[in-house]
Amino acid sequence: MENELMKSDCRWIPVTERLPENDDEVLISIDGEVFFCYYEERSWRYGKSRELIPCHSFIIINNGASFDEGRNFPSHWMPLPDPA
Q1: In the predicted model, what is the mean pLDDT of residues 72-81?
Q2: How many domains does the chain have?
Q3: d(C-alpha 26, C-alpha 37), whole Å
Q4: In this structure, what CATH number is given to the domain that contains residue 44?
Q5: pLDDT at 46
Q6: Domain contains 84
Q7: pTM for the complete prediction?
Q8: CA 25, CA 37: separation in Å to the nearest integer?
């Protein structure tokens, strides 16, 4: 019999394979550290000349810090398991 967790999509997914849906709460992995975040499909970051650049971002739930595309974007993310 297959484990329920194995049936779900609870695995580390490379950001090159696909990204979460907008506002999804997920886990991300950066340099071996794991963070609880939500995903923002349309976000903004400052460029070198302080201009606003559109980007994808993962925002840490408890402090609002962001991991932005093109700067410090994670390599993998994982959906949260469905509550039992």
Answers
A1: 91
A2: 1
A3: 5
A4: 2.30.30
A5: 67
A6: no
A7: 0.76
A8: 6
- Does the residue 12 lie in any domain? yes
Q: Which of 84, 83, 78 is nearest to 36 (CA)?
A: 78
Q: Would you say residue 36 lies in a domain?
A: yes
What per-residue confidence (pLDDT) applies to 1?
Answer: 39
The answer to whether 28 and 67 have CB atoms below 8 angstroms apart is yes
DSSP designation for 49: T
HSE-CB at 12 with a 13 A cutoff on CA atoms is 11
Q: How far is CA 12 from the centre of its chain?
A: 11
Structure tokens at 16: 């090159």
Which DSSP string corresponds to 11-55? Answer: S-EETTT--PPTT-EEEEEETTEEEEEEEEEEEEEE-TTS-EEEE
Residue bearing the bigger pLDDT, 67 or 4: 67
**What residues make up the domain containing 56?**
4-79
- Write down how long the chain is: 84
CA 17 to chain centre: 13
User: Residue 51: inside a domain, yes or no?
Assistant: yes
